[in-house]
């Protein structure tokens, strides 16, 4: 609201006291003629604050977050801005603890607050009671787009990060000559590693076209190859102050650098594209100097330790060499004594060889004697065995003769008995045998004789075929 607009109503008019609720300076004398009263600055600021609080109700204001700080007390201090103006804001802990999120640099938010006056400094500010997110700011959106693009190209990949040299021969710094960060880095390097030379590649760190100038210095340091590691740094600030380190040209220059690059931009909570592209990100410029510089005191201490270790190792080696020399000296003898020892050793070997050659022969002879004794024990007596065989052969012959005689007698007996019972002998006594020529059977009964039937008659001296003409059976007890 413009104070010159018709709606503006001042707290006091020219016809009454300017600030009736405030007491005047006790040392000033009242002017009976109605002259202007003299008031302290605090009273004026308090009056302005009261007027603002009564004139402006709670209002929602939108803008982009900048210079956000969360104090140890829990209060939030930040600014919201647009293209033409900005307003300082404060959100006390009692309200901030209920916020759904914590704003960040570049966030576009809406705050509900009351216009107030911070009396100790006489600054106009907005007392925020509520905050809500309306989207990220233009710069932060550009930051996220570039971050996603470079990450997709692999510029942030861990495998392309290079290790920092443990003992750099020279250290390069890309920053402004007027930057406080340069003084902090040089102080840290002179304290930790005064023996390491430092080369500064000056370039502005804030303003128009800064990113290209920083990239040019990085390229120049990479081309000259004067240093082993490069620091790109500047002090803290808002997202606008650090925006040069979010440009693509600087990010690509860092990625293509021939030596490792350490990024030390802003404070510990500040992150830039250069931090993601660099080989190592340091939270502050001072921390970047500590990362690249070996501490001289520690190096000297390590050197003393190594010198002492080397001296102890050399001493132990000399002791071992001296002991080895003593042992070799004890082994060193005259050629005559050495030859005599070799002769004795040769005689011993000869005796061992002879003994080793005779032992198998002796053992073989002993085994042969034992086998021969066993063979003699079991050797057969051929004469006795031959005599025994002759006796057995005679006994066998006698037994076979007697058996033959008994068999011959038996055969004669059976032959005589056979002759007695032989049919031929019966036929020789005058008997005859009739055989039916048709059936081949002997005729035993007169009833079996038929007329005209052929018969074969067997006699003692032959056989004859006969044919019966007539049959007259006759039974008789005698034949």
Describe this structure in words.
- Residues 40-131 form the OB-fold nucleic acid binding domain.
- Residues 155-465 form the Exonuclease VII large subunit C-terminal domain.
- With 479 residues, the protein is of the alpha/beta class.
- It folds into four domains: 56-136, Nucleic acid-binding proteins (OB fold (Dihydrolipoamide Acetyltransferase, E2P)); 144-293, Hypothetical protein af1403, domain 2 (Rossmann fold); 295-345; 420-479, no CATH class.
- The protein has twelve helices and 13 strands.
- It has helices spanning 41-55, 93-96, 138-152, 180-192, 210-224, 248-255, 273-277, 285-292, 296-331, 335-377, 382-421, 423-428; strands spanning 59-70, 76-81, 86-91, 107-118, 123-136, 171-175, 198-202, 229-234, 261-265, 280-281, 433-436, 454-459, 462-467.
- A five-stranded mixed barrel has the order 1-2-3-5-4. Strands 7-6-8-9-10 form a five-stranded parallel beta sheet, sandwiched between helices.
- Helix 4 (180-192) runs parallel beside helix 8 (285-292) and helix 5 (210-224) runs parallel beside helix 6 (248-255).
- The radius of gyration is 72 Å and the shape is elongated.
- The model is unreliable at 1-34 (pLDDT under 50).
Précis, in short:
This protein has 479 residues and is α/β, with parallel strands linked by helices. The protein has helices at 41-55, 93-96, 138-152, 180-192, 210-224, 248-255, 273-277, 285-292, 296-331, 335-377, 382-421, 423-428, and strands at 59-70, 76-81, 86-91, 107-118, 123-136, 171-175, 198-202, 229-234, 261-265, 280-281, 433-436, 454-459, 462-467.
């Amino acid at each position: 609201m413009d104070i010159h607009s018709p709606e503006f109503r001042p707290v006091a008019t020219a016809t009454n006291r300017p600030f009736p609720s405030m007491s005047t300076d006790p040392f000033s004398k009242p002017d009976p003629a109605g002259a202007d009263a003299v008031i302290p600055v605090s009273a004026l600021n308090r009056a302005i604050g009261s007027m603002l609080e009564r004139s402006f109700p709670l209002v929602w204001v939108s803008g982009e977050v900048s210079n956000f700080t969360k104090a140890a007390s829990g209060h939030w201090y930040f600014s919201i801005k647009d293209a033409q103006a900005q307003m300082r804001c404060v959100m006390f802990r009692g309200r901030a603890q209920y916020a759904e999120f914590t704003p960040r640099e570049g966030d576009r938010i809406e705050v509900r607050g009351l216009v107030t006056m911070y009396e100790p400094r006489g600054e106009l500010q907005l007392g925020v009671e509520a905050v809500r997110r309306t989207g990220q700011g233009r710069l932060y959106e550009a930051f996220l787009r570039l971050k996603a693009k470079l990450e997709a190209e692999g510029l942030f990949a861990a495998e392309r990060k290079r290790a920092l040299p443990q003992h750099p021969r020279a250290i390069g710094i890309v920053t402004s000559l007027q930057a406080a960060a340069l003084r902090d880095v040089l102080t840290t390097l002179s304290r930790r590693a005064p023996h390491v030379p430092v080369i500064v590649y000056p370039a502005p760190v804030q303003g128009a076209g800064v990113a290209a100038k920083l990239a040019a210095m990085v390229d120049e340091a990479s081309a000259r190859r004067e240093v082993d590691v490069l620091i790109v740094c500047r002090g803290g600030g808002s997202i606008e102050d650090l925006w040069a380190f979010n440009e693509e040209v600087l990010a690509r220059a860092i990625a293509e650098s021939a030596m490792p690059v350490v990024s030390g931009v802003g404070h510990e909570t500040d992150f830039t594209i250069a931090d993601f592209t660099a080989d190592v990100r340091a939270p502050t410029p001072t921390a970047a100097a500590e990362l690249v510089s070996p501490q001289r005191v520690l190096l000297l201490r390590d050197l003393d330790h190594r010198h002492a270790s080397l001296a102890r190792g050399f001493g132990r080696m000399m002791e071992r060499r001296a002991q080895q020399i003593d042992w070799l000296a004890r082994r060193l003898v005259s050629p005559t004594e050495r030859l005599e020892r070799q002769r004795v050793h040769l005689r011993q070997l000869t005796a061992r060889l002879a003994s080793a050659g005779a032992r198998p022969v002796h053992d073989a002879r002993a085994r042969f004697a034992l086998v021969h004794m066993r063979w003699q024990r079991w050797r057969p007596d051929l004469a006795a065995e031959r005599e025994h065989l002759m006796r057995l052969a005679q006994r066998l012959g006698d037994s076979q003769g007697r058996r033959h005689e008994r068999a011959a007698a038996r055969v004669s007996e059976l032959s005589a008995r056979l002759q007695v019972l032989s049919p031929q002998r019966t036929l020789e006594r005058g008997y005859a045998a009739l055989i039916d020529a048709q059936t081949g059977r002997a005729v035993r009964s007169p009833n079996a004789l038929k007329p005209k039937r052929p018969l074969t008659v067997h006699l003692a001296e032959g056989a004859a075929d006969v044919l019966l003409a007539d049959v007259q059976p006759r039974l008789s007890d005698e034949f």
